[in-house]
Amino acid sequence: MASQDLATLSNGLFARRSLLLSLVFLIATAIYLGCVLSPPSLMDDVDAVQAQIARTMLTSGDWVTARLDGVLYLEKAPLIYWLMAFFYKIFGVADWVARLPVALASIALALLSASFGMWAFRERAGFYAGLIMSTCVGLFLFTRIQIPDVMLTFTIALALWAFLRALDEEEKRPRLWAAILAASLGTGLLLKSLVGIVFPVAAGLIYLFFSKQLISRRTWQRLRPMSGSLIVLLIAAPWHVLATLRNPPYFAWTLQSGPGLYHGFLWFYSVNEQLLRFLNLRYPRDYNTVPRLYFWLFHLLWLFPWSVYLPAITRLSFKPVDRAGQTRLLALCWAGFILIFFTFSTTQEYYSMPCYPALALLLGSAMAAEGKWIDRGTRFLGATAALAALAAIAIAFAVRNLPTPGDISAALSHHPSAYTLSLGHMLDLTFDSFAYLRLPLCLAGAAFVLGAVGNLRWSGMRAFLSSSLMMVLFFHAARLALVVFDPYLSSRPLAEALRSAPPGKLIVDRHYYYFSSVVFYTGQDPLLLNGKFNNLEYGAAAPGAPAVFLTDSEFKALWTSENRYYLVAAEQGADRIETLVGKEHFQTVATSGGKLLLTNGPSRSSSSPLPTAPRQSAAPLFPFSSIGNDVFD
Fold first, then answer.
1. Using CB atoms within 10 A of its CB, is residue 10 exposed (0-12), middle (13-18) or buried (19+)?
2. Per-residue pLDDT reduced to its tens digit, 321-355
3. What are the beta bridge partners of residue 577?
């Protein structure tokens, strides 16, 4: 009878756990798979660049060396490109396909956080951790472009869960979990180089020190560092070795980095992109840094709406006397190391994403314990949501009669000095620009009304579920807003105009990144006018680099020749081009979002001119295009 009761209890716990995990899966899927749809299109800058590199790998068959417009692109690990190319192979090349790896990794991270929490604390705390990961602002915001940080976050979280399970004396398969730990570290190396190992290893060592297990023989017997190191090497070493051999010189003993210097793959990938970036000495310096205080305080926004419960974490026990205490201590070491690490390095807002699961575990544990701080947080969140609802509705009402000529770019301001930071583009919003966002504003207002009612009326799980549903609606309001910004964030309208125009060679004015979506949507490899800088500068100095870079004189010779050429440029640069080649060789094919598609006119064999479009007023140059050129890191 006792064994039958135990089996019934076990089946009940399994059913409850499955139900809660299913809810996390449904919420995460509604957000992340629901937002792979196009539009919005792939954005200019890093978003389309990543997708194009993966496409080049697939078409060229070279899965070792990344290239952009034929130029060596040696600074980043390849796994995200491989995953994109894999999905291209299955579904074909499309923008929504390029988004699948990041979307699926986001869902997997939410499920992993929930499973980790259920193992450590019980079902309800794990469920809350999964909700937090699914619906926090930071994860959504920093997965709108195709960067590997969410995948890195997954491998770090899995590595640290495996670390605890390998050490757990009740674990029946410690060798398996030690192998999972090592495999996660190796995979992290292929996603973002050394941080994929440094972060989990440092967090684990700090935990072992505080739990007084660092010099225990039993600890290292269960972690199996020797066999684990072999697994890491088997996963990560082949690509690093091949990339080094194919892109000599193999060794360069120098810290000198500057224009025109080429030291091969290994130096650029390890010294320039790791050491010099940490020291803020990397060249080219195409990134910015967030003030340290802001870097810490921004986590109140990145963890919204759940950051209202952060004070409750101080009431938890961090003594490693049981599984729950061990997990809390590890989470504290995990989040603390990452935040302190970037306090002394270059900082971008999204750099701390790998600590989100640690904070989600702590918050989930505190929310499950309930108490006055949780109740206060719930009421505060309800009041905040009510104020946000009133603001959204008031703005929507105030702009109801404002005209919306053209696209939203005409109503935005221009703050280029802020664009190397992820939220710098927010400064471009004006009151008039909200007239283009009436539908997203109304949906966001409805979301906040739901959150206000749920948090002011209920407490506990009901309130937490209402907050989750609020964020699902809010994120889809954000997706609709991105659709409105599509002509401004992406150059896809220019690509569509180019595809319907007579054949001709494409030229990009200035940096490839500025019009990368044109390249992706047309499939053309462009020539680059004065584009040898930032991310392409190092590869341009490599032996045998392709002749895709044009000077003004070379461009003028091509533009005034018998052949048809097209140029994509910012409206601010149109006068310079017109002066350079002469007005008679200058025709506008299309305009969109402050950007132009120009042609040198019908070729001598053509009998019909190209359609022209009126010039619009100048607009800012790509302020919403990405999280800055530094976003790969």
1. exposed
2. 999 999 999 999 999 999 999 887 766 788 899 99
3. none
